[in-house]
Design a protein that fits this description.
Structural class: mainly alpha
Radius of gyration: 21 Å
Number of strands: 8
Number of helices: 9
Number of domains: 2
CATH class of the largest domain: Mainly Alpha
Length: 257
């Protein structure tokens, strides 16, 4: 890892100091004023374990940074990729808008409607997550020795899976680079091999915020499509940034219609 002035590590340290100043400063202010607040930060400040011990300031900061990274960056990038694909496939934007209107009229759909009564939005979100899984690589450790692809993997070795790669296997997802939400219809989902679609990971370590994140994405999409269409700027082309989560490199400029 390169270190020293001007290096990525040096910039990382400066950014960390900025984040620490903001978050630790807010924690100190709330502790000083004796009012933790009625939000997630307040809950963490006042949380106690079975022995009455509370988080240190640094532990609260670490939890908040995890929430900011895992609960915000992943959702915003998925929303961006969803509207990128809808701009390239305007027929699907119109289908989703018509479905939203049929379900909720001029109002906003509630959680039950977003999950249970809008199957086309469901398919579009899942296809976006297939093409652009925000947590596109996952670190694990081999629990026992095994063989994979002709290679012997010893126990205790750090290994990683990549949903970006596995979601684009042509033998599992025909025409894998195309945006085809219909592949996530009831029949298509039922025929997927176990582990083939894992935008939130799998097993006991599956993302704890999966349903909340899916609800956010659906609610944002339904709200925007109620009144607007988002088009790509002429001549603009997508470049994907792959660290730490997937996102459009340099942002996603769009025209609001």
């Amino acid at each position: 890892m390169l270190r020293g002035p001007g290096s990525p590590f040096s910039r990382l340290r400066r950014v960390r100091q900025t984040l620490d100043g903001i978050i630790l400063g807010e924690i100190a202010r709330r502790r000083r004023e004796g009012h933790a607040g009625d939000d997630i930060l307040g809950l963490l400040i006042e949380a106690e374990d079975s022995e009455g011990e509370r988080f240190t300031d640094e532990q609260v900061r670490d939890q908040i940074l995890t929430l900011l990274f895992a609960g915000h960056d992943t959702t915003t990038s998925t929303v961006a990729f969803l509207f990128y694909e809808l701009a390239r496939h305007p027929e699907w934007a119109e289908r989703l808008a018509a479905e939203r209107k049929a379900v909720a009229g001029d109002g906003d759909p509630d959680a039950a409607q977003l999950f249970g009564e809008m199957p086309e939005l469901d398919m579009a979100v899942h296809e976006t997550l297939r093409l652009y899984p925000p947590a596109w690589i996952g670190p694990r450790r081999s629990a026992m020795e095994f063989e994979f692809g002709g290679y012997r993997i010893p126990a205790g070795l750090p290994v990683s899976y990549s949903s970006w790669a596995s979601h684009r296997l042509p033998e599992v997802f025909p025409d894998p680079h195309a945006f085809k939400p219909e592949r996530f219809g009831p029949e298509g989902r039922a025929n997927l091999p176990k582990g083939a679609y894992i935008p939130f990971g799998g097993g006991p370590r599956i993302c704890i915020g999966m349903r909340f994140g899916e609800l956010e994405i659906r609610a944002i999409a339904a709200t925007v499509l109620r009144r607007f269409r988002l088009d790509l700027e002429p001549g603009w082309s997508m470049r994907v940034r792959q660290m730490p989560t997937l996102s459009p490199r340099g942002g996603l400029p769009m025209r609001v219609v």
